[in-house]
Amino acid sequence: EVQLVESGGGLVQPGGSLRLSCAASGFTFRNYAMSWVRQAPGKEIEWVSAITNDGRGTKYVDSVKGRFTISRDNAKNILYLQMNSLKAEDTAVYYCRKGADRGQGTQVTVSS
To answer: By CB count within 10 A, which of 81, 88, 90, 107 is most buried?
Structure first.
């Protein structure tokens, strides 16, 4: 059974940073590309970033380019999202995703 458990969210001031983690189990993590998506209140789910199975390739939605960094540790089965220079519009529940599977999410709130 695929399990994805996100953590690291919280309340941060504009301009601050957070690092999200996603602990994966129930599948061979190193074999799969992974992604982060988010859902802001009242809005549809938005794809944020993706990374290839070996970590060599990454992609980002334009709104986070230069501020967010996706990475992974295939030895520990963990996916990361480093978020810097956070803005109010980054406020959302963030989910890690493997195909159609996703975790329970972690809330990120950017507010002064």
So the answer is: 81
Neighbours of 99 (CB within 10 A): 11
pLDDT recorded at residue 32: 98
* Residue 93 main-chain phi, psi, to 5 deg: -90, 125
Tell me the H-state helices in 18-107.
none
Q: Are 24 and 36 in contact (CB under 8 A)?
A: no
- Quote the radius of gyration of the chain (alpha carbons, Å): 13
Per-residue pLDDT tens digits for 6-26: 999 999 999 999 999 999 999
Residue-wise DSSP of 79-98: EEEEE-S--GGG-EEEEEEE
In this structure, which amino acid lies at residue 99? G
Q: Using an 8 Å Cβ cutoff, are 84 and 18 in contact? A: no
Compute the distance between CA of residue 40 and CA of residue 8 in angstroms, rounded to an integer.
17
